[in-house]
TrEMBL record:
Domain FAM65 N-terminal: 1-250
Highest taxon of the lineage: Eukaryota
Sequence similarity: Belongs to the RIPOR family.
Entries under InterPro entries matching the protein: FAM65_N, RIPOR3
PANTHER family in the record: PROTEIN KINASE PKN/PRK1, EFFECTOR, RIPOR FAMILY MEMBER 3
Protein name: RIPR3 protein
Length: 250
C-alpha cells in the first residue's frame, strides 16, 4: 500500500492536508457547545470516537423512527378515509367549522412532519460523521506513509499538518456524537418482575441495580405468598449515552 504514495509530491500532500482542515464539520454545521450533550458534560470529554457503535445506534434509531412514521401514516390514511366518508354523507359539511376528526387529522399531519424532520436531522448528522471518519482514516494512512519515507524538513512539516488534521477530525466526530445523542430521546425502563422458576420463593427479598454510565437505579422487591412480586419502584427514565451500555445486577 505504501507504494501508492511514492508519486505523491510534498506540495500535493500539503494541499490535501489543508483541504482536510478546511472540511472541518464545525465550519459547515452549527453545533451546540459540549455542555449540551450528555456524554460531554461534567468535564467528561471523551476524545475517542466509536464509529462502529455509532453506526449500530444510528441504524437502530432510524429503523425505530421509520416504523413510528409508518404507523402514524397509516393512522392518517385511516382518518382521511373516514373524513371523506363523512363529507360524502353530510350535506352540512361545507358549512361546518373544523370537526374533531379534522382537528385530529391536522394534529397527526403536524406530528408526521415533525418525525420527518427528526429523521432528516439524524441522517444529516450521520452523513457528516461518516465524512469526518473517512477524512480521519485518510490522515492516518498518509501519516503512516510519510513515516516510512526518508525524514526531510518537508515531510516533517507534512506530518505535523496531518496530525493536526487527524486531531480536528477526531474532535469533530466527538462533537457530532454529542449532537446525535440529543436526538436519541429517552429510555423508559419498567420493572415487570424476576424470572427464576423454583429459585424464587415466597418471602425472598431482592435488590436490582441498573446502571448506564453515571445514571443509576436501585430498586428493592419481595416475593409474596401468592408468588406475585412487589417493588418499591417500577419505572425509571434513562438518558441514552453512545459510549456506555446497560449494566444490571440482581
Amino acid at each position: 500500500r505504501s507504494c501508492s504514495f511514492t508519486g505523491f509530491s510534498t506540495v500535493q500532500s500539503r494541499k490535501l492536508a489543508k483541504s482536510l482542515s478546511r472540511s472541518s464539520v464545525r465550519s459547515r454545521m452549527s453545533l451546540k457547545p459540549p455542555k449540551a450533550y450528555n456524554s460531554l458534560q461534567k468535564g467528561a470529554l471523551i476524545w475517542d470516537p466509536k464509529p462502529l457503535q455509532v453506526k449500530k445506534i444510528f441504524e437502530a434509531l432510524k429503523k425505530g423512527l421509520n416504523e413510528y412514521l409508518e404507523a402514524h401514516q397509516a393512522e392518517l390514511d385511516y382518518l382521511s378515509g373516514r373524513h371523506k366518508d363523512t363529507k360524502r354523507n353530510s350535506r352540512l359539511s361545507l358549512f361546518l367549522s373544523l370537526s374533531p376528526l379534522q382537528k385530529q387529522i391536522r394534529s397527526v399531519e403536524r406530528y408526521i412532519r415533525k418525525l420527518e424532520f427528526h429523521i432528516s436531522k439524524v441522517e444529516e448528522l450521520y452523513e457528516a460523521y461518516c465524512i469526518q471518519c473517512r477524512l480521519r482514516d485518510g490522515a492516518t494512512n498518509m501519516r503512516h506513509a510519510f513515516s516510512l519515507s526518508p525524514a526531510t524538513k518537508a515531510s516533517r512539516e507534512s506530518l505535523v499538518e496531518l496530525y493536526k488534521n487527524f486531531q480536528e477530525c477526531t474532535e469533530d466526530m466527538c462533537f457530532i456524537e454529542g449532537a446525535l445523542e440529543v436526538h436519541l430521546g429517552e429510555f423508559h425502563v419498567k420493572m415487570k418482575g424476576l424470572v427464576g422458576f423454583a429459585r424464587l420463593c415466597p418471602g425472598d427479598q431482592y435488590e436490582v441495580f441498573v446502571r448506564l454510565g453515571r445514571q443509576k437505579w436501585r430498586l428493592k422487591g419481595k416475593i409474596e405468598t401468592d408468588d406475585s412480586q412487589t417493588w418499591d419502584e417500577e419505572e425509571k427514565i434513562f438518558i441514552p449515552n453512545l459510549h456506555e451500555k446497560f449494566e444490571i445486577k440482581v
